[in-house]
């Protein structure tokens, strides 16, 4: 009986201990439920897919530059004597822009003239020798004197021509004149100094107008064609609108392959703008009146390419060999409440810009797509949401 | 008056939640609509008795109780008789038989489902023996499944009641009988069963209560609208409630109560007569 | 029949009785996938002609795994919430009914008053009624008291259940009058007798009542269906009723956890329980 009693007692103690453990465990799990869930399930952040139009927006600034610019160099490399124009000055054709110091040329001319004089003097000597030879009747002396005279005559003629040439060159190189009507864009010449390597004057051609060049993403460039008119906002003191006509587009060799539908670059999980290929856009300013060149302009482009589609952030788009896909959150309703699972959903990308991808197939409006998660998720993983 | 102090808490709650509601229910059963209806006599009862689903439910309940209670009593009594003999591990065995009582139905219902399903284990066995499979829950067999579940759950409870009854029978009665040359069967009928009768009344009472509780098993196993054969009065009443057919429900309830009262009164009278005879 | 043979025979029977319980525990250690593979066919009408496709109850899992438990305890905190819902309903009912019933039972068992036996008969009759009988009026009362959709709608009727009064009265009737008479001679009042003598002696009865009430209410289905429409308040028993094909994978673990408190309580109070039940069954 006693034995039974103690056995029963110890059994009760065991049950008590087990019960305490059981309820303790349940209480602990109840209190820490959310924390434990957080530890075991990755948290995902989602964005709602919305129906809309994908606008390709671009905002960039560029500088107005003249369409044609002539660099006028110091023709002879002489020192600059006077710069007669100022930067930005309007000049007309034939106007003298820079005067050069021709003292060196003068010196050379004087030297050449004195050389000619020497030659003429020596000519007189030779003639005198010839007369002597004729009077002496020395035939051989007479012949050699005659040859010398002929040679000297050629030398004199040469020298005279050289002087003439030098004189003409001096007149020409003494000044730099404007080859056409235009505006002085830059002055490289400095009075008192010779050529510095840079052109002495940069002259813009007023007849050819102005243009703006800027790099834009190829995705937007595709939506433009030559001849399109775009609005440009002139910034700075004078704020007004300009119109620019697309004159040329040249894809920039640095930025990825141009054939890729832009979505490629953007869809790669937004790995930076570096992957986006760009195009050099040249806009001819339609009415360049009052422009000088060098003004800053701002270009605001917003182009819609495709019809309305489902828009999702680029961050949500993933790609692999099977194509593009997103992870969506799938809800499983259970008696224990709703559980959320990651589901891989293949999509067809219609278009994309830097931030947003337009999906033509695979998603419906208001669907939630995962843009970010506390740890990497794959298809079928249960998550917190 | 002193007794009233002890009784008061129970009596108040009991009245509010049982007696008054029941009286209201009886009243409702004679009116034509809930709250403030006019008195229509036995119209609701006529309608109720004419309703085939009620008759079906009543018949099923009666059949189930009539089938399962005697079976249960027979089974638990035999078990008690066996357990009352010299045995190893008597306490362990007793525990094992009572354990189903404390296991919540909801937690073992899945096992039963897997067992009795169309594709279930029971049919697998039948298949092994080369027999056709039976849709246990969608045929008249469903009542059998319920009876088994009922037996499984309640056998332990009745068994300990009988054990107590058996242990209260003085051993010298048996010895006297043996000396007088009575056989095992005679001993059983004339001593054991006779002296067990008071216990028996109680067991019958408890068994009936518990047979009404089998609604849970049915509900868990087969839902709101189970197969015809296990569509019990409780299902009927529950469904009447949800379809807001209050009059029928209260009429059915009153009728059921009437039957129970009659039965219990009869039982108690029988018990008193039995006791008078014994003395 | 020898003792050994009988023991073995009863042992086999006992083992059969325990099969559903044991299977629930062993199946709760399966992985959800295994459950899915094994029991997928349940509830599907397969063509009889196709035949040969059956579901066998698996005794042992292929791989032991706590996956189901992890799932319901950690990943789906709703299970625990419902578990506590159940507890929040059951504990007040048990405490309340035991207290209220002990008082009333004492009056019925040891005090004399007019109409005692008639009143007790009323309790007895009520105890026999299925829940549905008083469903409508009960609903109206609960509605009038403004208790609809709150735990009180279940707890209050539970507290005043007749079963406790019946059970404890039966038990207390066995306590010999000698004890109470002796106390009365010593000048003790009714309350003192109740608290000092009857209650301690009624411990097995109280234990038995606790276990039986626990079994009954831990299991309740009917009341919450009607009175608790709000899913967040429903007890676990209802959830287990809703286990459908999808959740079967975790159903076994949920069931196992659900029955554990019951089984523990029973094993702990077993001897009291048996004594209590037995005494309540013998006419006092």
UniProtKB/TrEMBL annotation, chain A:
Cellular component per GO, a single term: efflux pump complex
MF GO annotations: efflux transmembrane transporter activity
Annotated source species: Paenibacillus radicis
Ranges in coiled-coil conformation: 102-129
Protein name per the record: RND transporter
Keyword line: Coiled coil
Gene3D superfamilies per record: 2.40.420.20, 2.40.50.100
Keyword Protease set for record: no
From TrEMBL, chain B:
Subcellular localization, as worded in the UniProt entry: Cell membrane
Membrane topology: Multi-pass membrane protein
Organism of origin: Paenibacillus radicis (ex Gao et al. 2016)
Protein name (Swiss-Prot/TrEMBL): Sugar ABC transporter permease
Transmembrane portions of the chain: 62-83, 95-115, 141-166, 187-209, 249-268
Signal peptide start and end residues: none
GO CC field: plasma membrane
Record-linked SUPFAM superfamilies: MetI-like (SSF161098)
UniProtKB/TrEMBL annotation, chain C:
UniProt xrefs under Pfam families: BPD_transp_1
Primary location group: membrane
Gene Ontology biological process: transmembrane transport
Membrane topology: Multi-pass membrane protein
GO cellular component, one term: plasma membrane
PROSITE patterns (alphabetical): ABC_TM1 (PS50928)
Alphabetic keyword roster: Cell membrane, Membrane, Transmembrane, Transmembrane helix, Transport
Transmembrane stretches, start-end: 83-108, 120-140, 152-172, 193-218, 250-269
Compartments (UniProt record): Cell membrane
Keyword match tRNA-binding: no
Keyword Cell membrane: yes
SUPFAM superfamilies given in the database record: MetI-like
Chain ranges of the ABC transmembrane type-1 domain: 83-269
InterPro entries: MetI-like, MetI-like_sf
PANTHER family (UniProt xref): ABC TRANSPORTER PERMEASE PROTEIN MG189-RELATED, ABC TRANSPORTER PERMEASE PROTEIN MG189-RELATED-RELATED
Protein name per Swiss-Prot or TrEMBL: Sugar ABC transporter permease
Source organism of the structure: Paenibacillus radicis (ex Gao et al. 2016)
